[in-house]
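Subject: for your reference before the review

Hello V.,

The reviewers asked for a structural picture of the protein, and I figured it would be easier to keep everything in one thread rather than splitting it across files. Below is the amino acid sequence we used in the manuscript, unchanged from the supplementary table.
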Amino acid sequence: MNHGILTGYITTLILVVSFIPLLNAQEVIITDRPTQTYSTSVLGKGGAILETGMLFETVNHENGDKSKLNVFGTTFLRIGTAANIEFQIATSYATLDPGDGGDKVSGLNPITLGAKIHIASEKGPWPEVSFIGNILLPWIGEEVFRPEYVAPDFRFIFLHTLSDKIFLGYNLGMNWDGPLRKGAFVYTLMLGMSLTKDLGGFIEVYGNAREDERAQHAFDLGLTYLLSPRFQLDISYGNNYSGVDSNFFSFGAGWQFRKTKI
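And here is what came back from the structure prediction:
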């Protein structure tokens, strides 16, 4: 682990948190992290959210080797461009230890560009619906992390409100990995709940299935905490239960630094 990067990231996060009481906030932030399930929430025109975090993943290979991927300072910027459309850009810095005696690799992950569109509000038994489309660019970032071709993905995003404290979200879509140009079906299913006024929790399952390959299925769970209506902390843990044997731990934050224009 790069302790210098980790220390710098945590120090920056503490400094930002120290200014939270100064925020004059009315809107309550809704982030896309830390779940694998995108939220149906779309920023209105003029709104902006910065989501950031760190992730530590371990993969246990069949030959006994363990590879480790550390992702530092994930940067996910969401900007509201219209009443029902937001633009997104994301990247991060990662280190990969293959665990087989090979060289460690560090560098910038490819940039992802995307847009989320709100389609319909929840009405009776019918869920709230949004759509998100992303493209992973192959021209920027450390070579080992870059896809060979432009790698698109899309998801339809659904949300059911089960009670004033419990909700059910799920995503259905496709993604393409770049090297093989083979599409994979992607799903997520997440149960979220309000534990207190500021504390939330979730548990979810998610996975993908690609033609001629073994399907991958995983679960994760985590907590979110609102320090203010516009600043949220999160922590999560996940584990594959079929396919690749891996697990991850992640923590981060979301900050709505520009309110939506009324």
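For the response letter, the relevant points are probably these. Residues 3-257 form a domain with the Porin fold (CATH 2.40.160.40). Residues 3-18 form the longest helix (16 residues).

Happy to draft the paragraph if you're swamped.

O.
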